[in-house]
Amino acid sequence: MNININRKSILVLTVSILLCQAAGIIGKFIVSPESLIWYEYLFKPALTPTDWLFQGVWVILYLLMGVSLYLVLQKDSPVSKKFALIIFGSQLLLNILLVPVFFGLKSTIGGLIISILLWMSLCLMLYKFYKITIPAALLIIPSVLWSAYLVGLNLTFWMLNSTHWVFWSFKQNLH
Asked: Which fold has domain 7-37+48-174?
C-alpha cells in the first residue's frame, strides 16, 4: 500500500476519524436523561453488555470506520468510490439514528428496524470497500459483526418487551 504521509493526509485522516466519532456523540446528545430511565425498566436479554463496554465498543468501531474511510479516500482506484461513499454516509446516518430511535422514541421495534438496515448497509459497504482497497474492508468487519449482534439484541429486546409478543407467547404456552 503506497500512501503518502503529509499534512493533507494527516488532515484527511483526522477529519475522517472525527466525522465517525461525531456520529456517536450526536446520538448521545439527542437523547434526554429521562429516556434512559425507560431503558432501566426494560426486560433485558442475557447477553446485554454493560454500559461502559457498549460505549467502548462504539468508540473503537467509529475509529476503525474513520481509518477505513481514510484508506478509501486515499486510494487511487479504477472502481468508482462514489457509491461506496454514499453507502458509508448511509450507514453513518443509521448509526446516528439508532440511539435516538431506540432510547429517545422508546421504540424497541424502531431499534430493530434500524439495526437491520445498519447491518445490511455495513455488509454492502464492506463489499464496496473491498473492491477499492482490502485493508479498508478488513477494518469494517468488526462493525459488521457488531451490527449482526445488535440485530439479535434488538430482536430480543423487542420480543421481551412487546406486549403483542408477550401475549402471543403466553397464549402459545397455555396450549
From this structure: Ferritin (1.20.1260)
Helices and strands in the chain, H and E counts: 7, 0
Q: Residue 2: exposed, middle, or buried by beta-carbon count in 10 A (0-12, 13-18, 19+)?
A: exposed
Residue 77 has pLDDT above 90, yes or no: no
User: Are the C-beta atoms of residues 137 and 69 closer than 8 Å to each other?
Assistant: no
pLDDT (average), residues 39-52: 90
Query: Of 20, 140, 36, 143, whose CA–CA distance to 89 is shortest?
Result: 20
Contact 139, 71 (CB under 8 A): yes
* Whole-angstrom distance, CA of residue 92 vs CA of residue 83: 14
Residues 6+ apart with CB under 8 A from 12: 70, 73, 74
Question: Do the Cβ atoms of 57 and 100 come closer than 8 Å?
Answer: no
Average pLDDT over residues 139-150: 98
Mean pLDDT (the chain) is: 89
pLDDT of 14 > 80? The answer is yes
